[in-house]
Amino acid sequence: MTWISLQRRLNQLPLLLAGPILRRTEPDAVTVWVALKDACHVTLSIYLTEDGTDLADRPLLCGTQPTVAVGQHLHVVAVTARLNGGDCLQPGTLYAYDLTFRAASNRTEYTLQQALQAEGEPPVNISYFAHQRPTFALPPDDLNQLRIVHGSCRKPHGSGRDALAILDDLIARSSDLPNDRPHQLFFTGDQIYGDDVANPLLWMLTDAGDTLLGWEESLPLQPTPTDSRSHITSRQLKPGDRHDIAEHQAGLTAGLRHQDQRVNSHLLSFSEYCASYLFAWSPVLWPEVFPTERDVYGDTQPDKRWREDLELLQGFQQTLEKVRRSLANVPTYMIFDDHDISDDWYLNQSWCLRVLGKPLGRRTVQNGLLAYALFQGWGNTPDQFRAGKPGEHLLKAAQTWCESAGMAADCEEAIARYLGLPPVDTVTGLPRLRTDQNTLILDHDSHSLEWHYTVRSQHHEVIVLDTRTWRGYPIDQAAKAPPMLLSPIAFDQQLRWPFQDADQSSQTALSQPKATFIVAPTNLFHMKLLTWIQRWSLKQNKVFANDVGDAWNINRDALAELLATLFERRDQIVVLSGDIHHGFAVHLEYWHLHDSSSSRADGQTALKPPHTLVQLTSSAIKNTEFKTRLIHTKLKSLFPEPRQTQAGPDWHYQVQWIKRQPAHTVFEQRPVRWPQSPQSNSAKSNSASWLTRFKRAIAWLWRNRWFQDGRETVGQNNIGIVQLQWSTDPAKRSVWQDLYWYPLWNPASVVFSRFRASFCASFRASWIPVRRWRKNR
User: Fold this and answer.
1) Which of 143, 405, 441, 621 has the most CB atoms within 10 Å of its CB?
2) Pick from 80, 75, 82: which is nearest to 16 by CA?
3) Residue-wise pLDDT tens digits, 27-61
4) C-alpha dihedral (426, 429, 430, 435), degrees to nearest 10
5) What is the pTM assigned to this prediction?
6) CB burial string 82-107: b at 16+ within 10 A, e below
7) Any idea what the Cα angle at residue 683 is, between residues 678 and 684, rounded to 5°?
8) What is the dihedral angle through the alpha carbons of 234, 235, 241, 246, rounded to the nearest 10 degrees?
């Protein structure tokens, strides 16, 4: 059998290409996202269930919305069912939802199961119950029962097994228990990789994307003395051949410092970004037989890297049914990080000038951000896409631009405005920046979409930060200087105002203990060695090699501003982050003289007990590396993370790493059947050699359970579940994160490692003399 283009398989595909994915879910509104092969009016209905089994006769919420034509064969919609009288949805209750599809062409109606199933294929199961509808539950009344899932960095050809498939088993184990099953899922960045794409995957993405859209995008180029072309299509740029155009024509930095492989197959066209989401979330478009080098390049020698990528992609594909079912059955929220567009996206002012000042660079960022809006952002904040809102204007402009095969210049400009891209200065050709106090920020249109958002229940709030598009670049420093990840105005918009709104709305309600979660895609704190490497890279002017500026602790003033802002109105904070390809937990205690000082009987000024923050990091879902697997083991215990202390003119904090508990087996999981490379005769004949025995001994040691149970990090692919131990007494509160991963000593099983942190101050003394504080500075 040989690889078959999507054009030849299109008629065999089901109506539903991807989804349903359950998105923003509230007591009076529920949103579900789908991608379809044909234009339809989609109706979403929410039903009460009896212990998950029988559905009520009439829906509690209902809504109908037409799809948006992204292409001739790609139509997407985030349809919202809203309350129309009656009671709101309640915690502690299991609800189900159903979808119906009325074709725009002939008004034929399809049920959810009909839309899922291709003709002649077996039924697709996206439910945990006999009624075959997806289900969900709202966050419970008791914070001790709240379960929040989070994770980041999911690369299809990343090393190791896809940890997101574990979530399907976790939901299945408690699907009929509304207070025990996961209540919210937060993807904290890098849901797709625009820069680091496997060559076989790019070939399939280009083929599928152009087929679904029905047209090929003309990507703009700057003519050069050696190349007079003004435009090019993605099909003219084969996998593995994109380094020069990505670096020089688009200005992208992922391939700098001799890392060509990261941009050799960089996504460039809008269709490729769209297809990347469809391949990440659904098995529908994946071919039965993968392409070979000969399919792409003609006669060529077998390539080892190609074969290795194929094996990893096949393993990724095999668990997509489980991933699809889990995303249909838990409210899912997303936020971008750099790889959703390209590595180093908006890292510093230099990157913005370098990339947005080139036509192809700007188009690539716009394509990636438009795909993000349609596939991720719409479901986060559906109210922004209602009639008269910026999102509706963006959808109309995008649909018209696609209908014109990318030739409608006025629509292209409108898309850029609504996405928040800065206008181009007509004189310099560079993106416009404006001042925000002592920083420069990209000039956003006043009607552009907001990517940050807040999710609230009666007892907890989750504030999701946009630390990419509202960065503050220092005015008085070099263009490569580390930025503030939130500019001064962004601190107001994304933190102070949401806190104020929450406090004002709760004044009329009964006083209840509230839990606050902050989703920060990049870490506030990470390993001391990484901090040293980034500071050394900054001195060497190699900021793009190690993402210098993406961690909060590289810019001390910005971190101080963040902590001060968080603790203006909150005493205890949980931060959920990703990005860094290993999972861990840190505990921070923070003092501020202005709100925490007092006087003792002897006249000395001293500090009261501190504010506390716990950072929980879950990464990567699928992108483990040798260095992360190494720090996962006992070897890292030889070099434990020290307690870190920092102080400013009127503030002081100390950070302590939380030790992970020994791994516990959760359940056995059907192992993935990895393709096996044929063993050579020479390898067989030398199986008893001393070198072979030595390698086997090293492999045994490496897979040994004791050796794999490190103390500080989980460096294998993982997904995290966060729970609280909550009390009206703040001193008795704690939070723990269970990171689920596949152990090397038994790959057919799933284990979890627990990180538990108390909100109570670890520093026992109730007073700390300021004299000693200042001395320690």
Assistant:
1) 621
2) 75
3) 999 999 999 999 999 999 999 998 767 788 899 99
4) -20
5) 0.94
6) ebeeeeebebeebbbbbbbbbeeeee
7) 85
8) -10
